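Hey Z.,

So I finally got round to the adenosine-5'-diphosphate thing we talked about over coffee. Here's the setup:
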Amino acid sequence: MVETQELKSLLKTNFGYDNFRPNQQEIIESVCAGNDALVIMPTGGGKSMCFQLPAVAMEGTTLVISPLIALMKDQVDALQANGIKAAYYNSTQPADEIQEVIENLDDGQLDLIYVAPESLQLLDPHLTTAKINLIAIDEAHCISSWGHDFRPAYTQLGYLKNKLPDTPLIALTATADKSTQDDIADQLGIAHAKKYISSFDRPNLYLDVRPGQKRNEQILKFLNKRPFESGIIYCLSRKSTEQLAAKLNAKGFQAKAYHAGMNAEERSKVQERFINDKTPIIVATIAFGMGIDKSNVRWVIHYNMPKNLEGYYQEIGRAGRDGLPAHTLLFYSYADTIMLRKFIENAQNADYQIAKLERMQQYAEALSCRRKVLIQYFGEYLLEDCGNCDICKNKPEYFDGTILAQKVLSGVARMQEQEAMGTVIDVLRGSQNSQVFEKGYQNIKTYGIASDVSWRDLQQYIIQMINQGLLEIRFRESGRLLLTPLANEVLFNGKKIELARLTQPKVEEVKTKKLKKPKGTLFEKLRELRSELARDANVPAYVIFSDASLKDMEDQEPTTPTAFLEISGVGQSKMEKYAADFIELIKSHVKTPKKKSGDTVYETKSLIDQGYNLEEIAEQRNLTLGTIYNHLIKLHEEGMEVDYFQFISAGEVKQINSATTKVEDPEKLKDYFNFFEEQIPYWKLRLALYVNKLEN
Ligand code: ADP
Ligand code: ZN
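And the result:
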């Protein structure tokens, strides 16, 4: 039995984290007690920890089945960087390396061994001689043909539980669908296992859906605002990935296409460059990103709508794994839905898939908080609107759409419910095309009755009417529109209808100001040092430290090994390896501005005097807002008049200072930061404590 306290200290020493993420502790304790588990956690939720920590806590070796060789290598690199004894075993290795791995396994030298399902058989004789303490099946949905990523080699994995019946088995996946879950558990022989379903909410992901008009233009504007960030654009076809990548390159962005038509070598090169921050933008088909642990993907764009919400959620989940804010943007067009329908209609279990597509469509067309729709799909409920989606940020305005609805509905009735949306719109708008004339629709009473509404707007309103249940689409009958009973209420019984006012697709303003790469900030310097170390060690940059760790260093500026150990993501091994280099850099950074402290502080002062507000100053000077507030404190210390209560309320000062007696160490800003659940930025904490000192 492993004690909770011991697990926590192993988490810090081995991985550098202070706290477990939701569900991790429960799962880890149960697994260490010898129980099987089925873990459903969203991408980025921290699944790997659920077997990596037991692997170091228990005696023996944990066997990890993982579908992708590239992914295996990265995980093993990351583990080794933390001083954990891990190896992988697959068909790409030279014979002598394989020999060494096997010897280490037999000798009990390994904490973890990663194996591709295809190579498992070769390892079979060693499974009983080595002491296997836990079997972990990563990306377990690959075993199920119900899932969306079926891999035949996974189906043999059921034999593991037969072979090692007393060894606990943990299966992990990000797929939430109920039928897939049961299928996984059955096939792996752990039907009785406890299921751990984590919250699917990822509040740091901004959810944005925009009409798919002028997509390229919208994307360029989006990228112009984010010149130094990494992101992925998902397209449906190989051809469109290449075309879009070429277009972006022509506009001066560094983008690379990625799709299944490229050979394995090309693909892994592209992937590697992305992981190492050399290529910031990937334009890919859905094949890209599975299992990539690149934590600083700052945005994901869907050029086309995915087939279902599982796929969508998994893809947007690749953004913001470090927990920092990330932007996800889905382009939605009605034409895409029609095309996806056509793909699906000939597939096996078409009904099942169409039902899923409809949920996807509802999400894209939602006029209420998107996160609520999404989370509900995964069986959870949000009580409040999230405040971090396009709908919450920009609540639609409703108007009485009864008359417009009546026009549309009577048009549909007069066309005998025989026409699809396109023709209905044409007729209502009085188009003079041959299709209309051939059928004589120019003679019906509703011809041209909605000519004051643009084609696209009318289309959007009709979609809203479909979603409100006024019209039904018969997809199998060339998409003709039919009236529902509710439509009759509107036409004949005076039922009122509200429609959401349409806003033009917001094409963001391009900044006229030239954006310069922020040089000289501590974060930038830390990144450079990280790249250097990564190059030397020949590992991806995130294996050294995640962006979240660098951000924490920037905020806390640790200059002693003890302080360095406080940083999130710094465990014993990384402290020993990297503390010296990073501390040296931080010290020199903290010192340089001191020498010119006068200059930089007075530059801030002079801008304040010129009437700029603090945000503008931070932006203009390429400094963080926190730094500007620190300047304020310095100015005050030097005897300048500063009105702090412009920036912080008396209530906030009081609230923050009331924590002084509750935090572990009142001298440590980080303790306050954690106390307020990371909701109050460091500069505000610092300012509040400073102001309080002044007042007393
Ligand atoms: P996934 O569920 O997609 O497999 P990972 O296991 O790759 O997610 O974890 C995502 C990120 O979260 C990784 O960078 C990992 O180091 C980090 N992480 C995992 N557990 C914790 C924790 N308890 N505290 C902080 N970060 C964590
Ligand atoms: Zn919302």
